[in-house]
Amino acid sequence: MASSYGHTSGFFSSTQNIQIMITLLPKNKKQIHRRRLLSAFLFLIAGMVLPATLLAQPTAGGEPSVLIPSQGRFWVNAQWSPDGQTLAFSAENFNGIWLANADGTQPRQLTDDMAAGFGFTWSPDSRFILARPSVMENRRRFQQVKLYDVQTLAAETLLAPTRSLHGLPSFTPDGSQVAMVVDRKLEIKSSARLSQSPNANPAVVYAIDGRLINANLITRSDAEITAFDGRFIFNVRISPDRQRVVFQVQGKGLYVLNTDGSGLTHLGHGEYASWMPDNRHVVVSVVEDNGQQITGGDLYAVDVTTGQSYLLTGHTSLTALKPAVSPCSAWVVFDNPDDGNLYIMALQ
Predict the structure, then answer these.
(1) Which of 130, 260, 275, 296 gives a 20 to 30 Å CA spacing to 149?
(2) What is the value of pTM for the model shown?
(3) Is 343:65 a contact under the CB 8 Å cutoff?
(4) How would you class 131 by CB atoms within 10 Å of its CB: exposed for 0-12, middle for 13-18, buried for 19 or more?
(5) What span, in angstroms and rounded, lies between the C-alpha atoms of 171 and 182?
(6) Which of 198, 221, 246 is the last residue of a domain?
């Protein structure tokens, strides 16, 4: 996909360190408003794009544009395939999963399963999507684990409807099996459809009862790497090199931790972290609300080693939620609850 965004190089001298850098993510609407104004001003005077040679941190490469138009739906929760060729996304209430080419063309439905679009994940080979759809029986909600083939559109049920599933299922690092927590115990499910990649890290990190557990799949041993006094841990995301994990804690915000249990760091109040390929930055959304509905949202790039955050969407009035960084780090896709479109924005 070729970028249509302009770039103004040499506008500032190399001695001027012009950057949008904040030590912590904003905590209130006044801070968010001030940072949006500052960001918009800097983009204006820099010709919309700051020179990449001046900034080590990620920056926006131009205005966002519509990638997937709503067409009467509200698209949410986009996720790139690992090979960067396909985008998967869901609709309102996370019902169903759709696919489209990376440039937004050829949108097509993979499944209409209820709640399948919440927390789904791609297999390492970009062939399958793993999801946790729901079914209703006698007015009670049950959850399944299903494997969807994005080429044939076939679905395989790995776990029958149950009320004992905790959290979200995930692929093992080599993509050959599926890990899930059932009755508070880690279970590993196999499928003849899945192929194995050699030399993968044999560990899975999962959350249960306010704890993060690092499970070694070879020795079948579990090690608690952090705990938060029973608080709900969610949106657990492993870095591409599997050395760090970023996650949210109910009522406390965003944290990063080394998978060996060291280096626990509070990063602020971002949501839905998406790792960049450099294993150092995540892109998160920071949401504004009035207690009843969302009133605004911005994307920030956060350096997990320093805790510094950089406003990415201060130059646009769009409400930006649930970012998804492309595997090549050149793009970020996000949803907008105001119009239902999926947007794409270049990163530098």
Answers:
(1) 275
(2) 0.83
(3) yes
(4) buried
(5) 15
(6) 198
Residue 224 belongs to some domain of the structure: no
Q: Are the C-beta atoms of residues 77 and 116 closer than 8 Å to each other? A: no
Do 47 and 129 share a domain, yes or no?
A: no
Of the pLDDT bands very low, low, confident and very high (cuts 50, 70, 90), residue 203 is: confident
User: How do residues 87-140 score in pLDDT, each as one tens digit?
Assistant: 999 999 999 999 999 999 999 999 999 999 999 999 999 999 999 999 999 999
Q: Measuring CA to CA, how many Å separate 201 from each of 124, 170, 242?
A: 13, 14, 8
Do residues 43 and 108 both lie within one domain? no
Range of the domain at 255: 18-82+230-348
- 103 and 52 in a common domain: no
- Specify if 181 maps to a domain: yes
The DSSP bridge pattern shows strands 140-149 and 128-131 to be antiparallel
Cβ–Cβ < 8 Å for 177, 194:
yes
Are 109 and 56 part of one and the same domain?
no
Residue 10: pLDDT band (50, 70, 90) is very low
What was the pLDDT predicted at 26? 64
- Domain count across the chain: 2
